[in-house]
Amino acid sequence: PDPQTSSYLDSLNDVQRQAVTTIDGPVLVVAGPGSGKTRVLTYRIAHIIEQGTAPWEVLALTFTNKAAREMKERIETVVGKRASYIWAGTFHSLFARILRVEAQHIGYPTNFTIYDTDDTKSLIGSIIREFHLDKQVYQANAIKNRISSAKSSLITPKLYEKNEELLAQDKMANMPLVYKIYAAYVARCKQAGAMDFDDLLFRLYELLQNHPEVVAKYREKFKHVLVDEFQDTNTLQYAIIKRLVQYPNSPRNICVVGDDAQSIYAFRGATIQNILDFENDFGQHNIRVFKLEQNYRSTENIVNTANAVISYNKRQIQKKIWSDKGTGDKINIIKAVDDNEEGRRVADTILEQKNRYHLQNSDIAILYRTNSQSRIFEEYLRRFNIAYRVYGGQSFYQRKEVKDLIAYLRMVVNPNDEEAFRRSINHPKRGIGGTSVSKVTDLARQQNITLFEALKHVALPNRTRHAADGYIHTIEQAQAKADTANAYELADAIAKGSGLTDMLRNDKSIEGMGRLENHEALLDGIKSFVEEDTLIDTDTLPDKSLATYLQNIALLTDFDSNEENQTGDVVTLMSVHAAKGLEYKSVYVVGLEEKLFPSWMSMDSMEGLDEERRLFYVAITRAEFYLTLSYANTRYRYGKMVMNEPSRFLSEVPADAIENTSSNRRSADHEYDEVSRQREQRASVTGVAPRNRRGTARFAAPKVDPATFQPSPAEEVQTGRNVLHLKFGEGKVIDVDGGADNRIATIHFSELPQPEKRIMLKFAKLQVL
Ligand code: ATP
Ligand code: MG
Questions:
Q1: 35 pocket-lining for ligand 1 (C-beta < 6 Å)
Q2: Average confidence (pLDDT) over 647-651
Q3: How far is the centre of ligand 1, averaged over its atoms, from the C-alpha of 213 (Å)?
Q4: Residue 168 assigned ligand-binding role
Q5: What SS3 class is residue 589?
């Protein structure tokens, strides 16, 4: 089809369309929330494929696996089933996929294990013990962070050992031997055939750096590279992307989209410097920069509030953002006496909104600064019988009984995996206790072999030897079948063979039954992984192996991971970090108190506060029609009752955007001046509602229910038709004039004091009746 008339291009504005169709050379889109960056990226991929590029030649990096899946689904509506061949996913999952194919170049087995945070901490703990260091001084968590940031800065153990600054820091912290632990950690990961999350970036960078033939292969393969949420990439991620799109092999078609004002991962090393550098790095190569200014997500009240709030941050790329969705409802502020009341009133307001605006549960989200805040809202949503789902927090795959079975599966795929060994060797209990494991560890260290190997040779008392042989047999029997059996067959066999299923069945307590359910839910999950049809590109085989399954679950992000639980019509509860990129008709941002949001951990520096404000900005810009902010005067934190000042961010919300609660309405003819404006602003924060300029409602509530409003294409608006406008209500089109893409309708809205309005159809949203 002629690309200029294809329907997906019709659903874009002019600048968006240019960003979608300019597919040769580097493209940068810096734009505010809701301006269609993700939409541009999505349709750009569809367009690239429509123009003849194979889907597996497109590399699209997203923030969560879920975001990638949704993107593929949208693209599928344009290009069909082949959309599933696109290389779309998170940095970690796509890089792991490349590393698996190329593992032999860096001395790793193809079936390498991915260590999660617990594995990493446990391994560091063992090293600290083996070095006979004081674990009160050498804290595993702190060392994990030191190692992680070294890797992210491309500092190998060799470089670390010579880095005076790092060594001095370690001395200051009373941990002069961190460099030794780091070296041992890297060696042990390698011996175990394991990579931690940082390795997936670090090792890929090394691979691309040291193996010209490999880098050339991927530069040729990926004809197009696209990155969403570019403001949250870290230096190493950007370095890898740059290596992937260099001449001579790469056509250098790279498109990144982002918003510096939404950068919320500085604490993990992300830097908006990447946005600034991008223009320089690709400045020589006909870079095109697009700015999107129209917000299609939110009402004017919400957009104006967001603009006002972010203006308190001094350093930012200037952007104009506007909306034509009408002024919309004002922002509702809930002031509660304590956290209980906050929970109750939020749930109460949700019920009321559902009735008044005909909202579904799934139109609503409650966003908080820290995951621990979810509990109180869960309690009241349950009491009010409102279905909900919590993202983040402890995910299904972090549960003990789930990890126990996964440890066995990891042993089958990679018997060198030390952490899986430690977890599984005496669980269920088979009499191989601490003393025996120490013997195994000692032998392994002496002979520089893996724990599994050592277990085969170590001298043990008869009964223990017998148990050890049983364990070895279970693993090796499953391994023997690994080439012919699929993931489910293997998992099912090992669940029974290991004794895990029996152990859980024999526990008749309520908790025990819950654990058995999770154990079986995991097996069901593996079954559906085997049964669902996935298309894989020509580089990797269609793969239902246990190794692939384990990789998929190891790389779920915090924000992907609760999906197993339920779908359907539920209210979403999540941290603000997890809400990035998402949108809901009604959003509640809760716990707006000093020390909570902004967090006490970020309050003592300008940078910290700016980041908290960007986080608040991300939160409020998730809302399409209704925004509710809430705070409590007192709440329990860490078991103590604390008094809270309202968050400073509340006082940054423009007074005239805030709902005037009826009980506090003042006289109509109040003279408005700056002093009273400030007083009102303060008052609005302390709960006394502000007056607005003219005393009457300055912004009428929408006449039409936004939830059911469905704007029609501009062409359908013609003389004589009856139409609906969100703000003005029902009207009749009297006349349409103006040029082809600048049509203006004159419409008579009978409910307005001045009924006749002239409306540019390009921007207006009208529903033809
Ligand atoms: P964020 O910065 O929050 O990630 P974004 O810039 O990625 O936002 P999108 O999520 O792509 O914005 O778009 C916001 C909403 O506006 C979506 O519902 C999208 O479908 C809609 N939208 C974007 N562009 C248009 C358009 N030209 N016409 C109609 N709707 C649009
Ligand atoms: Mg987006």
A1: yes
A2: 96
A3: 40
A4: no
A5: strand
Say yes or no: CB of residue 295 within 6 Å of ligand 1.
no
Nearest to 238 by CA among 197, 283, 269: 269
| 597 φ, ψ (degrees, to nearest 5) | -150, 90
Q: Give the containing element (helix H, strand E) for 197.
A: helix 197-210
Sequence-separated (6 or more) residues with CB below 8 Å from residue 425: 432, 437, 455, 471
Do β-strands 194-196 and 623-637 pair in parallel, antiparallel, or remain unpaired?
unpaired
Index of the ligand 1 atom closest to the CA of residue 13 = 27
Q: Which residue's CA is the nearest one to ligand 1's atom 14?
A: 34
Query: Active-site positions?
Result: 37-38, 228-229, 262, 622
* Ligand closest to CA 62: 2
Nearest Cα residue to 747 out of 726, 722, 712, 769: 722
Q: How many CB atoms lie within 10 A of CB 291?
A: 16
Residue type, 206: E
Among 556, 570, 619, 564, smallest CA distance to 66 is for 556
Question: What is the Cα gyration radius of the chain?
Answer: 29
Query: Is 323 marked as a binding-site residue?
Result: no
Q: Is 36 in the pocket of ligand 1 (CB under 6 A)?
A: yes
Ligand 1 proximity of 12 Cβ (cutoff 6 Å): yes
Residue 37 CA, distance from chain mean position: 16
> Which residues have a Cβ under 8 Å from the Cβ of 210 and sit 6 or more positions away?
none
3-state SS assignment for residue 559? coil
Q: How far is the CA of 698 from the centre of ligand 1 (A)?
A: 28
Neighbours of 16 (CB within 10 A): 24
93-132 burial: b if 16+ Cβ within 10 Å, else e: bbbbbbbbebbeebebeebbbbbbeebbbbbbbbbbeeee
- Between β-strands 756-760 and 744-749, what pairing exists: parallel, antiparallel or unpaired? antiparallel
Which among 221, 232, 220 has a CA at the least distance from the CA of 62? 232
Q: How far is the CA of 583 from the centre of ligand 2 (A)?
A: 9
Cis peptide before 654 (omega within 30 of 0): no
Task: Report whether 258 contacts 229 (CB < 8 A).
Answer: yes
DSSP E strands in 606-742: the ranges are 623-637, 640-643, 722-725, 729-737
- Asked if the model's pLDDT at residue 692 lies above 50, the reply is no
Q: Which atom of ligand 1 is nearest to the CA of 229?
A: 4
Q: Are strands 254-258 and 224-227 parallel, antiparallel or unpaired?
A: parallel
Candidate from 38, 260, 263 with most ligand 1 atoms within 8 A of CB, to mutate: 38
Does the CB atom of residue 258 touch ligand 1 within 6 A? no
Nearest-angstrom CA–CA distance, 340 and 353: 20
Global ipTM: 0.99
User: What integer is the mean pLDDT of 323-336?
Assistant: 95
Give the residue whose CA is nearest to atom 4 of ligand 1.
581
- Which amino acid type is present at position 511? E
Q: Are 128 and 139 in contact (CB under 8 A)?
A: no
| pLDDT score of 169 | 94
Query: Mean pLDDT over all residues of the chain?
Result: 87
**Structure token digits, residue 164:** 């005076």
Pairwise CA distance, residues 95 & 154, whole Å: 16
Which pair of structure tokens corresponds to residue 277?
């550098």
| Ligand nearest, relative to CA of residue 584 | 1
Q: Any binding-site annotation on 632?
A: no
pTM, to two decimals: 0.79
Ligand 1 center to 37 CA (angstroms): 6
Element containing residue 626 per DSSP (H, E): strand 623-637
Q: Which ligand is nearest to the CA of 31?
A: 1
32 assigned binding-site residue: yes
Average pLDDT over residues 384-399: 83
Is 31 annotated to bind ligand? yes
